[in-house]
Design goal:
Length: about 200
C-alpha cells in the first residue's frame, strides 16, 4: 500500500492581492523595492546553486518591479519570522506563497524528511508545492494525495506590506494589474505551472 502524502491545503491559489502596506511616498519616489522571500519553498522560491533566489514568486516580484520601474532586491527571511521582519523594516514587501503548517517546522524540507522517514504519517499542505518537491520527483514514488482537497473559499495568497502604506500597496496592485493585462504574469506562470494558479 502506498504511503500517505497529503491532503491538499488549497485547491487553487487565489488572486495576488496585497494587504495593507508601509510608509514609502508615492510610487514615483520609490527607487528600490526590497522583497522578503523564504528561499526554501520550490517552485515558489528557492536558492539556486549559485546562491540567487529563483522561482515563481521572485519572477512575479521582478515583473512587478519592472512595471513600477524600480530596482528589485531579495532578502532571504525564514517564513516563520517574516511578518516580524517586515514590521522591523528589513524589507518592504513579503511575497511568499506558503500554506498553513499544522506542526512547527523550521522549513518545508523538514516536513518532507519526517514524512519520507516515516516519523509522520501524513502532511496537510499546498498541493502545488508538494507536487513540485516530492510527488513529481523520484523520492515521491511511494506517495500520493489521499482524500478530497481541503478547500477554503476565503483563502488568499497575498503580497504583504506594512499596515498603513497605502501608496506602496496601490503601486504594487497597479503593477500586478498591468502584468496581468500585458501577458507578463502568464509568461511567468507558464514557466512553473501547466494551469493558472491566479484564480478567478
Amino acid at each position: 500500500m502506498k504511503a500517505v502524502m497529503a491532503a491538499t491545503l488549497l485547491a487553487a491559489v487565489a488572486s495576488l492581492g496585497v494587504t495593507n502596506v508601509v510608509h514609502a511616498a508615492d510610487s514615483a519616489a520609490i527607487k528600490e523595492l526590497r522583497w522578503g522571500v523564504d528561499g526554501g519553498y520550490p517552485p515558489f522560491d528557492e536558492l539556486s546553486p549559485a546562491g540567487t533566489i529563483v522561482g515563481f514568486d521572485p519572477d512575479i516580484a521582478t515583473a512587478i518591479c519592472e512595471g513600477m520601474k524600480v530596482k528589485c532586491v531579495f532578502v532571504v527571511q525564514p517564513f516563520e519570522s517574516a511578518i516580524a521582519a517586515l514590521n522591523q523594516n528589513k524589507f518592504d514587501a513579503l511575497i511568499a506563497s506558503h500554506g498553513v503548517r499544522i506542526l512547527s517546522y523550521a522549513n518545508q524540507e523538514s516536513v518532507y524528511l519526517d514524512l519520507l522517514s516515516g516519523r509522520m504519517d501524513a502532511a496537510l499542505q499546498d498541493d502545488i508545492q508538494a507536487q513540485a518537491s516530492v510527488l513529481h520527483t523520484p523520492r515521491g514514488k511511494n506517495f500520493q494525495f489521499v482524500g478530497p482537497a481541503v478547500e477554503n473559499a476565503d483563502s488568499r495568497v497575498a503580497i504583504a506590506v506594512q499596515k498603513g502604506n497605502l501608496k506602496l500597496r496601490d503601486a504594487i496592485n497597479k503593477s500586478i494589474a498591468n502584468i496581468r493585462a500585458n501577458g507578463k504574469y502568464d509568461a511567468v506562470r507558464k514557466k512553473y505551472f501547466a494551469f493558472d494558479i491566479y484564480g478567478s
